[in-house]
Amino acid sequence: MSKGPGLFADIGKKAKDLLTRDYNTDQKFSISTYSASGVALTSTALKKGGVHAADVTSQYKYKNAVFDVKIDTDSTILTTVTFTEILPSTKAIASFKVPDNSSGKLEIQYFHDHATVTAAAALKQNPLIDITATLGTPVISFGAEAGYDTSSKTFTKYNAGISVTKPDACASIILGDKGDSIKASYLHHLDESKRSAGLGEVYRKFSTNENTITVGGLYAIDHTTTVKAKLNNNGKLGALLQHEVVPKSLVTVSSEIDTKALEKHPRVGLSLVLKP
Question: Is residue 1 in a domain?
Fold first, then answer.
């Protein structure tokens, strides 16, 4: 694929990942295995709100195709097939869920040195259609997305964004919710390895005059241990400790506290991911 501006979904993604990725208030255990034939198998057990769930995910790569199959506790099977370079600089992603016969979806992604375009549609009569376009370079990009419901002939969404990315920092502004909200974020890396960073994010909802300001950070204690923290103006404080027990195998402990209601018990989550 080309070294272009990336997908519209990439705008603000680094800031979002720092504030949300690996934060978990449930109990999760995951183990992965790999076979010599190239099949990857991942089993996950999850306890959320006192409810137990489990799923098994397998992945198989063959030439320019990747097959992903996920089976959950409800015996629902989700299959995703990704084809790369069917046409130059093009990726196709097809997915469907069994027994839900109306869940099929096809997405086409086209990558150019100065533009990225995607189109996705549900494989059914009167489908939902999503289109995104991003223009620019890996340093600065402008993007927009729109969703259209062919049954009601109405737009389900239309958003726009801009992103500026440098080796040690990235900033983004996203106009979302059909123009009813705006989110601005700035992330600055504190070291060359990008394992320590600071972040500020401002979100405003125009229809409700709601403002949310969040600050967060990531710090590498050593090459195997990192800590993260975040705090918003509503008093929600989150903290996370992640340790690499052995290469690729992680144990993560995270918690969330409402500093304006300290009488409430903090929510604590534990995640263990084992990979060979």
Answer: no
Within a domain: residue 135?
yes
pTM of the shown model: 0.89
Residues 196, 218 contacting (CB under 8 angstroms) = yes
Amino acid at 94: A
Boundaries of domain holding 187: 8-274
Two tokens at 269? 């989550």
The domain that holds 223 is classified in CATH as 2.40.160.10
Distance (Å, whole) CA 54 – CA 57:
10
Q: Could you give the C-alpha distances from 39 to 33, 42, 59, 79, in angstroms and in order?
A: 8, 10, 6, 15
Q: What is the pLDDT of residues 17-29, one digit of tens each?
A: 999 999 988 888 8
| Domain assignment present for 2 | no
Q: Is 38 helix (H, G, I), strand (E, B) or coil?
A: coil
Closest CA to 29 of 276, 266, 251: 251
Distance in angstroms (rounded) separating the CA atoms of residues 45 and 130: 33
Decide if 238 is inside a domain. Answer: yes
Six token digits for residue 240: 């996370």
User: What is the number of domains present in the chain?
Assistant: 1
Determine the Cα–Cα distance for residues 137 and 228; give it in Å rounded to an integer.
30
Q: How far apart are CA 210 and CA 203, in angstroms?
A: 8
